[in-house]
Design a protein that fits this description.
GO molecular function, one term: peroxidase activity
CATH architecture: 3-Layer(aba) Sandwich
Structural class: alpha+beta
Strand order of the largest sheet: 4-3-5-6
InterPro entries: Glutathione_peroxidase, GPX_CS, Thioredoxin-like_sf, Thioredoxin_domain
CATH class: Alpha Beta
Order of helices and strands: EEEHEHHEEH
Number of domains: 1
Distance between the termini: 25 Å
Number of strands: 6
Radius of gyration: 14 Å
Pfam family, one: GSHPx
Strand content: 15-25%
Protein name: Glutathione peroxidase
Keywords: Oxidoreductase, Peroxidase
Length: about 160
């Protein structure tokens, strides 16, 4: 099993199989528009622009499970991301990342890359999962680890 076995609804309502990203390095992120970490959109967009031509994708999944910091509709989220941060990487419809109603992709990501002390639940917005070109989850980054802090590691590993 790999991330390629999952599909997700895009922020515009289409269903997208993640197998469309086969061969790409992926950074999958649960996002929120009203979070202290929201400014990470800027660094994510910069990372995307830097590596996109080398088969790198960032997949953003808005989530309202942490402090209700993503209360808006998918349309409003898309407009916010584009207006404030110029986000052009793929964004998906709002999902849950923990609990019984978690999107199956996030249940898989949590299982493959447990967090601190082996706990698999995602603690907060902007948790990031790095996926290799074969669809294997290779690392989880905590919310506080900024795109600027992880860019050189990703570059050394894949580019």
């Amino acid at each position: 099993m790999s991330v390629y076995d999952f599909s997700a609804e895009t922020i515009t309502g289409d269903v997208k199989p993640l197998s469309d990203f086969k061969g790409d390095v992926l950074l999958i992120v649960n996002t929120a528009s009203e979070c202290g970490y929201t400014k990470q959109y800027k660094g994510l967009q910069e990372m995307y622009e830097r590596f996109q031509e080398r088969s790198f994708q960032i997949l953003g999944f808005p989530c309202n499970q942490f402090g209700a910091q993503e209360p808006d509709s998918n349309e409003a989220i898309a407009a916010f991301c584009e207006r404030n941060y110029g986000v052009s990487f793929p964004m998906f419809a709002k999902v849950q990342v923990n609990g019984e109603d978690a999107h199956p992709l996030f249940a898989y990501l949590r299982e493959q890359a447990p967090g601190e002390n082996g706990v698999d639940d995602i603690k907060w917005n902007f948790t990031k999962f790095l996926v290799d070109r074969q669809g294997n989850v290779v690392k989880r980054y905590a919310s506080g680890e900024t795109p600027e802090q992880i860019t050189s590691e990703i570059e050394q590993r894949y580019f």
